[in-house]
Amino acid sequence: MKLYVYIIRRLLLMIPVLLGVVAITFALSHVNINLLISEYEGRIHTAQARQAVINALHLNGNFLEQYLYYVVAVFTGNWGYTAPSDIDPGSPVVLEFMRRFPPTAELAIVATLIMVALSLPLGILSAVKKDRLVDQATRLLAMFFYSIPVFWFGLLVILIIGPGSKIVPPWLQDSGTGQLNFQKYAIVLKNGVYTLAPWAVQGGLSRPTGFLVIDTALYGDWPAFLDALKHLMYPSIVVGVTSFGVFVRYLRSSMLETLGQDFIRTAKSKGVPEKYVIKKHARRNSLGPTTTIMGLTIAGLLAGVVVTENIFGWPGMGTWLYDAAVSDDLVSIIATTFVFTIIIVIANLIVDILYAYLDPRVRLE
Amino acid sequence: MSVSQNKNSAGKSEFMRSLMSRFESFKRTFYFLTRSPLAVTGLIITIFYILLAIFGDFFVRGNPWTMVQVLEYNGQYIYNTPLPPSSTFPFGTTYGGYDIFNGIIKGARVDEGVAAIIVITGALTGVILGSIAGYFGGIIDDIVMRVTDVFLSIPGLVLLIAFMAILGRKLEILVFGFIVIWWPGYTRIIRGQVLSLRELKYVEASKAAGASAFRIITKHLIPNAIYPVFVQVSLDFGNVILSLATLDYLGFGFAGQNLAEWGNIIGLATHGASGVLSIENYPWTVTIPGLVILIFVLSLNFLGDGLRDVLDPKMRR
């Protein structure tokens, strides 16, 4: 089977999953219909307002009709409005999503990089030195970080790096929450005159990409860049370190399986040095199967992201979900659930295609 | 008459024999388990925690909010100031004068009880659905597997928060939400096992002898496919406890923040004060309950890992 045929088949397989996900979010948003209606009504709980909301959301039709309207709305980007509050009149969910998604993506990408950078050498080392001290220590370490409560680990990190800490030097300490102290960098001293920084616009930083580290680097504001890096470092370490245990476990068993195969013995017996056997023969073959669990690992990682964002005050999707759940903002809860799920579905798709590309045998099934 | 009698006695001896052989295999498993020091450590700590959950209530009486009655301690007004560990409060107190030691003992029963309910119901659902999907195959298998695909792509914690926020913060909602998340894993495990088992000769023989599908599944397939589920249960028990503590820490647990639960105690320390940073002055309010969770989950994982090594014949060699 050609690769593009496989990709098309894989995309077709995605359709039932997508419909199922939409069905779940539909069920979640329509199971407590009073919550949905009261969110749109605002403060005016009158019969007319209720009827207006019901008409606008097509809540009076039969089940199938409602589902159809829902599916059309989801796929046309009509995701409703966030709940209004005293200070916030409520905005389209899609706009809020555009604002919240980049920080989460930034955190998740860096955390994934940390996770892979930690687990690749450890997993291979632990398989090569099976049952030796290194192996036992690695397995113990992986299990330790696998069992640690993410929120507790985040709090411990805050205890260690908080202002006035005696454990780490001051330049590693971090105060305040969120991504950056904008007031600190918005006004710069230029030729003896205080002026606004080039990126400072009303309401904060002008964000070409939304990724804080990339934005500050694009504007060439190096102090702000370093500060952003410091703010990004700790939460991503927390997420990356707490999710690398599963990956190491799979990599080790996959590597052990590869090392026990005939072609490894052949390579060894014909005199290939141990280093090259591991690097060229074993590692490549064991990485393939490990990519398949990447989707599940990312699901676990995103759960860690939700908690870590809450602890570090990171203004991403997790914080959005938390705020929405606290204030009964049903539309935002559904939107975040949907987006997180779509991220995992797409991650699974990419991983499967990557695996099919790396290992052509998969395409034969 | 004689035929039925014969059948009866044969059934009994067969039952005894199967019981004996199961006991023998359990003894062998247990022997191999005791070969691994980590697994033994895990087993001992797990048993200790379970005993704590069952009998802890009889030894530590009263409720964790002792300070409401004892407003003064060593001449200090301590209603709202956390106290460091001392002989009166072995683990110290947290905000609102909450006795951490008492809370942890009370929380053991809540945490482990809820986790046990969740894991057992989730495993049961998964075993039933997985064995049906694996045995019948075809369209049933396809439907069940597509549904597990959907549920496996939803991050568990996110769905749980959504459940608790939308349907109400109640125990039954929590358990239902957890089952929704946890059944696909078990379904996949048992389906994979059943798929390989149903091709074996004894299943075929049983089918040829006219056994019903129900009998084949309950008598031949599930007993032989169940061992990986045991491993997964012991690993998932820890995961459920972690998720439970996380939910309660975030404030989306059942029964609110006054419930004695391990995650809640940490939540009290961070949400009860002016913010996360104030815990720097009272580190024990966070570290001690977290350590309690960590030790239990770690020992469960040791146990599960040891069980996997023992039950997987490839690893036993």
Structure description:
- The complex is a heterodimer of chains A (365) and B (317).
- Chain A is mainly alpha-helical and 365 residues long.
- Helix content of chain A is 71%, strand content 3%.
- Chain A has 15 helices and four strands.
- In chain A, a hairpin with a 2-residue loop joins strand 1 (187-190) and strand 2.
- The radius of gyration of chain A is 25 Å and the shape is globular.
- The model of chain A has no long low-confidence stretch (mean pLDDT 82).
- By secondary structure, chain B is mainly alpha-helical.
- Chain B has twelve helices and four strands, in the order ααββββαααααααααα.
- The longest helix of chain B has 37 residues, at 100-136.
- Chain B starts with a helix and ends with a helix.
- Chains A and B meet through helix 1, helix 6, helix 7, helix 13 and helix 14 of A and helix 4, helix 5, helix 9, helix 10 and helix 11 of B.
**Overall strand count of chain B:** 4
Shape of chain A: globular
Classify the oligomer: heterodimer
Order of helices and strands of chain A: HHHHHHHHEEEEHHHHHHH
Q: Largest protein interface?
A: A-B, 56 and 47 residues
What level of helicity do the residues of chain A show?
over 70%
Judged by helices, strands and strand pairing, the structural class of chain A is: mainly alpha
Separation of the first and last Cα atoms of chain A: 9 Å
Write down the overall geometry of chain B.
elongated
Estimated radius of gyration of chain B: 24 Å
Which regions of chain A have little confidence, pLDDT < 50, spanning 5+ residues?
Answer: none
Strand proportion of chain A, as a percent range, falls in: under 5%
Radius of gyration of chain A: 25 Å
Number of helices of chain A: 15
| Structural class by helix and strand composition of chain B | mainly alpha
Distance between the termini of chain B: 50 Å
**What share of the residues of chain B lie within helices?**
over 70%
- Report the biggest beta sheet of chain A as strand number plus sense, adding barrel if it closes: 2 strands, antiparallel
For the biggest sheet of chain B, the summary is: 2 strands, antiparallel
% residues in beta strands of chain B: under 5%
Q: Order of strands side by side in the largest beta sheet of chain B?
A: 1-2
